[in-house]
Amino acid sequence: MELDNYVRALPKAELHLHIEGTLEPELMFQLAARNGVALPWKSVEETRAAYDFTDLQSFLDLYYAGAAALIHEQDFHELAMAYFARAQADGVVHAELFFDPQTHTARGVAFDTVLTGLERACADALGRYGISSRLILCFLRHLSEEDGFATLQQAMPHLGRIHGVGLDSSEMGHPPSKFARLFARCRELGLHIVAHAGEEGPPAYIVEALDILKVERIDHGVRAAEDRVLMARLAREQVPLTVCPLSNVKLCVFPTLAQHNLKTLLDAGLKVTINSDDPAYFGGYVAKNYLDTAWALDLTRAELKCIARNSLQAAFVDDALRAPWLARLEALPD
Ligand code: HPA
Ligand code: ZN
Within a domain: residue 330? Predict the structure, then answer.
């Protein structure tokens, strides 16, 4: 079997995927025209040409501008269905979708509009593709904790439809400790907890995410490699890292994929997964992230299988749902 077919055949969970980051320019322009929204670009081509990022913030500025095309429940449904079609083609059996309600409520789009559109897509993806999914509400860390509490208040009537909370947006200067009380409240509510940490921020932010927010997974976490004590802890505690290789190169966290530290993390015994983050902006969905990383770092099939296994084990699902995926995975050759 060719390597690309092998990668697609691996049953895998995608655990780090911002649904707003799957908005391809074609759909962005379609929605903007339909909704009478003005975009900062003249064409699809001009939009793609603008995706030349120097750091996280340079990406976030465009990502929030593009999200302005999303207004109606139907828009969020279409967005997520386009993602699920790609996920199915890539061999994703389970996806945990991040969504950023504050990006939308700040523009006057109701929390319920966002959630209902996404939830309907999740139900349709299960029926159409057999892909199970979860929704993880992300708080924007450049905003205040008070703003986060107001968002949690809006989410309260819908908590049965939200599996967890995360923390995203501009990392530097916004450490996890800024949100200690908000995440404590989310834990009391029984929500799963994750946070972006150690993408651009220092290893100390990863330690804060673990000790203060009490996260169950770290999103990115690649800068852990700078701290030997933290590396040993992540290996010992088997904290899953949702690594996004193509994102890291596009946002200049690593100069090239060949210089990415994913294999270093894997060799140190950390529970590494591979994910696409914002695939419409970073040049590839999850299978391309696996495949390009495999070529760049000489990963073996056994290592790719281990990464897919990690993703299934790190998913927020019952073992009854997980077991058949693992059985399918183990049946594949190395
Ligand atoms: N990092 C932080 N915030 C984000 C990202 C990311 O990679 N993608 C979307 N919001
Ligand atoms: Zn992310």
Answer: no
Tell me how far apart the alpha carbons of residues 241 and 238 are, in angstroms, rounded to a whole number. Answer: 9
pLDDT at 1: 87
- Mean of pLDDT values over 274-278: 98
Position in ligand 1 atom list of the atom nearest CA 244: 7
- Atom number of ligand 1 nearest to Cα 20: 9
Catalytic residue among 14, 24, 199, 200: 199
Q: Whose CA is nearest to atom 4 of ligand 1?
A: 169
The packing angle between helices 111-129 and 145-155, to 10°, is 60
Q: Which ligand is nearest to the CA of 21?
A: 1
Using the mean position of ligand 1's atoms as its centre, give its distance from the Cα of residue 163 in Å. 19
Predicted confidence at residue 275, as pLDDT, reads 99
pLDDT at site 79: 99
| CB proximity list for 27: less than 8 A, separation 6 or greater | 78, 79, 82
pLDDT tens digits along 105-160: 999 999 999 999 999 999 999 999 999 999 999 999 999 999 999 999 999 999 99
How high does pLDDT run on average in the chain? 98
Q: How far apart are CA 214 and CA 195, in angstroms?
A: 9
> Would 326 be classed as within a structural domain?
no
- The domain spanning residue 143 has which CATH number? 3.20.20.140
Rounded Cα gap, residues 226 and 209, in angstroms: 16
> Ligand 1: does its nearest atom lie under 6 Å from the Cβ of 199?
yes
With 0.85 as the threshold, say if the pTM is over it.
Answer: yes
Active-site residue flag, 200? no
Residue 50: the pLDDT is 97
Q: Is residue 323 part of a domain?
A: no
103 Cβ inside 6 Å of ligand 1: no
Please give the residue range of the domain that contains residue 21. Answer: 3-315
pLDDT band at 163 (very low <50, low <70, confident <90, very high): very high
